Amino acid sequence: MSTVTRFLLNRTSEPRLQAPAPGKEVLEQAFQCAGRAPDHALLRPWRYLVLEGEALTQLGEAFAGACANNATEQELKKARNAPLRAPMIIVGIASPKQHPKVPEVEQILAAGSGMTLLSLALNDAGFGTMWRTGPVAYAQSVHSALGLDEAESIVGFLYTGSVIAEKPRVPRPENSEFVEYRQSLDR
Ligand SMILES: Cc1cc2nc3c(=O)[nH]c(=O)nc-3n(C[C@H](O)[C@H](O)[C@H](O)COP(=O)(O)O)c2cc1C
């Protein structure tokens, strides 16, 4: 088995993260990897925001602002503190372009593929990552706070840092649960 396959078989998301976050050199290399995502017509329909420090506190305010009007103090506090669970959050943004042959869904898939490659590259460099979304990813007020254009969407918040403690193993599905081998399409 190649080292790449072994690495893929062992990858996990890690929610318990602390400083230090990756430095510029590691990040730049990881973004080069993200830029290798499969991409129909080479539209590059993605961009990333790297948030640290005060930006995470401000993101927490945006998350709290996106809570329902009747949110309790506890819910607001949870939303405000959510981005502080990691020393860095990389916001993956899909930026679809008008194209006669490439529908928006394909461009969002390309941006999602980029997030996966970014995450794997950071893991390979020794950092933990956790891809999160939730209602805040779809809230207009959060989009405005992050400066998204109208056509853009949030692919995910990649919580990034050094792993405090690995999470318990996630049960992995058997291939037979999601793969079918067919020699014919007859049923
Ligand atoms: C688009 C997307 C959004 C996600 N949003 C969340 C989330 O908001 N909260 C969460 O706990 N996990 C979320 N996950 C799942 C985790 O990132 C992770 O994959 C899951 O906990 C399983 O762990 P594993 O990656 O180690 O298998 C999301 C995954 C994807 C692809």
TrEMBL record:
This is Putative NAD(P)H nitroreductase. Its cofactor is FMN. FMN binds at R11, T12, S13, R36, H40, W131, R132, T133. Keywords: Flavoprotein, FMN, NAD, NADP, Oxidoreductase. It holds the Pfam family Nitroreductase. One of its GO terms (molecular function) is oxidoreductase activity. PANTHER family: NAD(P)H NITROREDUCTASE YDJA-RELATED. The keyword NAD applies. Its EC number is 1.-.-.-. It comes from Marinobacter persicus. Residues 17-161 form the Nitroreductase domain.
